[in-house]
Amino acid sequence: MDVLEGIITYPVEGILKSVGSLAAQEISLFRGFKKELTKLRQSVFAIQEFLDDVSYQPRHNGKAVEDWVKQLKDVAHDADDVLEDINYEVLRRKVEIQNHMKKKVLNFFSLSNPILFRQKMAHKIKNVNASLAVLKSEASFIGLVARSVDRTPPPIMRNRETDSRFGQNDKIIGRKKIVLDIIKILMSKNQEKNLSVMAVVGIGGLGKTTLAKSIFNDDAIRTPFVEKMWVCVSDTSDVNSILNRMLESLKSSRTGLTSRQALLDDLTERLTDKRYILILDDVWNEEETFWREFMDCLSKLNSGPGSIAIVTTRSANVASIIETMPRCDLNGLSEEDCWSLLKGEAFPNGDASSLDSDQERIGRAIAKKCDGLPLAAKAIGLDKSNENNGHD
Questions:
Q1: Which of 113, 134, 157 is the last residue of a domain?
Q2: Local confidence band at 364 (pLDDT 50, 70, 90 cut-offs)
Q3: Whole-prediction pTM value?
Q4: Are 121 and 231 contained in the same domain?
Q5: Are 210 and 172 in contact (CB under 8 A)?
Q6: Mutual angle of helices 357-369 and 335-346, in 10-degree steps
């Protein structure tokens, strides 16, 4: 793994062994953060499984994986420091008891005060667990899959299939103004003879697909755009495949067509003089010849003026090749919006009002660590919801 090889050798296994040993001990000192210790062990174990997947990563994911592992190394150092503090305190107390040096009255503000020590350790472990939870949720964004040694290499995660329907998890928070602004721009293109193309660009987990769904399903575009098509492109490199999916989106059924001429004839029959909106979701292909060929096909459909294509992609190169309109560079959500998303997933029945100030402070700290990624906030909130409901 070249550059990554030296990073991955950090002894996460040693931390796992240490925290496992501590979690198994029945020591009164741990009262108040034993549950957090157990959760830390589970978190570190899960992260170790993701680390086992690093060696399978394709080269194009190298930088993202390297950054992820470096973040993990920082969190591992924090976990190691916490475990050293706990081990030291356990040893110190044993020595005090053995030497009959334990004082009857301890200064409440001293580190040796058991109540303060528990509170301090509980706080530190919760922070480490929160950081590990974010890393765990980010792992899937860069193609990491928790694996055992005997599993086969994972498929590249960018082959996921998307659709235009809103699901239970497709919450649009912090993006309403962007949606309205884009719709306003789309409406203004009603006299354009040629197909206009807008690119929505951003890293994985920012909610590009959810944004596209919000536009696609908005009532404001139903009347002006007579036809609507949704195609999950992913890393498709076959123009006919995309044309076929466009036709399937219009017919809501499989076409059975294979030749380009037949596909173009059928699409032309359905789109002639009609204004349409086409969503090309999760685009990766950066080949200019591919896009020239595809756009040439679209120009033959005799569609009505003002037709629009919206492309969602992580690649600025894709955007620069295909866009004809100002780009939408999607940024991260605010901390407040991340907290709203996390809270909504964690307490779907509105039970968040029962959170005390300390729980809310911790929750907001976790939301801050999501770095504006709505998918991370949703994943962590859902994990918390399952925990609340007693699910594994």
A1: 157
A2: confident
A3: 0.63
A4: no
A5: yes
A6: 120
